[in-house]
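Continuing from yesterday's entry. The apo prediction looked reasonable, so today I'm repeating it with zinc ion included to see how the binding region is handled. Same sequence as before; SMILES copied from the compound registry.
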Amino acid sequence: MKAAILHGPRDLRVEAARDPEAGPGDVVLAVTMAGLCGTDYRIWSGDRPVAYPRVMGHEFIGRVLSVGSGVSRVKAGDRVAVEPNYSCGACPLCREGNRNLCLSRVAVGIDVDGCFAEIARVPERCCWQAPAGVADEDLMVTEPLAVVVRAVNRGALRPGESAAVVGAGTLGLLALQVLKGQGARVLVVGRSARRLPLARELGADATLRVGEEPLERAAGRLSRREGVDCVIETAGTPEAVSHALALVRPGGRVVLTGLPHEPTPVQFFSVVRREITITGSMIYQDEFPEAMRLVGAGTVRTRPLITHRFGLDEIDRAFAVHAEPASIKVAVVPSQGRA
Ligand SMILES: [Zn+2]
Ligand SMILES: [Zn+2]
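Holo prediction written out below.
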């Protein structure tokens, strides 16, 4: 097979590689479509070092080629969405249900080889049967969608509440739709105006470019009170965290699911005085089926987020385009999957 192999920061080469073989409990998949995200970009650039050589990529749909001994839930020919994280299953965190927080969690495409290749191998428990009738390009975004399903659920919206989403990238545009699916009125706040028309098309009741007007005022207009009840922060920048805290009403909830890699100054005076609940939300625990259901039901439209597609041979271009403001979700379509 061919695989895009990262040999070091910004040293990504498409090379012939040995086909992965299915050991006990493993599933070997032809990768039909893969998504590129900020995590891949950080690994590619060297901001997040990994053990080299490494095949990156963790958001993908595939067709089962073979299975190892003991695999019973999937068989050759099945189409599956991949949940690219698996935990040890034995530690106290895993046993109490906090699989996503397991300190021994293995991330596909980071700790082990991932999907920027024609063929990938994952444990059976990572595979979810793709619903019939839902296209690969709609399901490709299942992984980031599972992230925001969890974040929104941790916001525990009540009927009639209003919400804001900070960030209008893939996660933000998905969070918007999950919130709309729960009946909330939603304000989307973006750093640039570029994606705000798409946010409105996908159901946003209001949009705001940062700097256009005070965040508090826009939140007050949407909520018709002191601010929105719940904010989902998806951008992962220090500014975005402070925007989230400006949008929320006293007594409201802020869910952080973007990963702010930089130190983030927070006015905790205002958090205490306004009794803001700040909740972290890390990837997902059991949200994959719900994410696939939302796509299958049409509650969440993922296809408009896929702005670019590249073959595996053009993967350098895919990384370049990911960094361009015009792209939202860049897809890699390995050639075997295309056949
Ligand atoms: Zn990702
Ligand atoms: Zn564990």
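Comparison notes:
- The longest strand covers residues 26-36.
- The mean pLDDT is 96.
Will overlay with the apo model tomorrow.
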